[in-house]
Amino acid sequence: MPSDEGDWILATEQLPLGTVIAGRVLSHRNFGFFLDVGFGDRFPGLVMVSWFRPATQPGPVTAADYPAIGSMVEGAVVVQHTDSLRQFRLSLLPEHGATWSGAE
């Protein structure tokens, strides 16, 4: 069992599914972007491209549309705990309960 198993369990208890959170953008990837949701890059939050859409842009999303690295994103919703990767999957879609408006 990985040494951080207990810490991960505590982290998931602090951020249960459905929790609306804020986080600072850590990095961009072609599949989405990572947020610091209070645990640094140890247990990051991942907003997959399919769960991100700026409120002002109805078309396809690309990495150029992501919030800037270092900017704050508020209103993301925890929709999944990915135990194997120690990541929180986050959504910015209103249908998941997100309150994010697209403003940085």
Task: Look at the structure and name the CATH superfamily.
Answer: Nucleic acid-binding proteins
Total helices: the number is: 1
N-end to C-end Cα span:
39 Å
**Radius of gyration (Å):** 13 Å
Q: State the helical fraction.
A: under 10%
- At the first level of CATH, the class is Mainly Beta
Number of strands: 5
Q: Could you give the order of strands across the largest sheet?
A: 1-2-3-5-4
Percent strand equals 25-35%
Query: What is the mean pLDDT?
Result: 87
Shape descriptor reads globular
In quaternary terms, these chains amount to: single chain
What is the number of domains? 1
Question: Structural class, please?
Answer: mainly beta
Unreliable spans are none
For the largest beta-sheet, the strand count, sense and barrel status come to: 5 strands, mixed, barrel
Task: Give the arrangement of secondary structure elements.
Blueprint: H1 5-14, E1 20-29, E2 32-36, E3 45-48, E4 72-82, E5 87-91
Parallel strand pairs: 3-5
Antiparallel strand pairs: 1-2, 1-4, 2-3, 4-5
Can you walk me through this structure?
The chain has 1 helix and 5 strands. With 104 residues, the protein is mainly β. The longest helix is centred in the first third of the chain and has 10 residues, at 5-14. The model has no long low-confidence stretch (mean pLDDT 87). It has a single domain (5-96), classed as Nucleic acid-binding proteins (OB fold (Dihydrolipoamide Acetyltransferase, E2P), Beta Barrel). Strand 2 (32-36) and strand 3 form a beta hairpin. It has a 5-stranded mixed barrel with strand order 1-2-3-5-4.
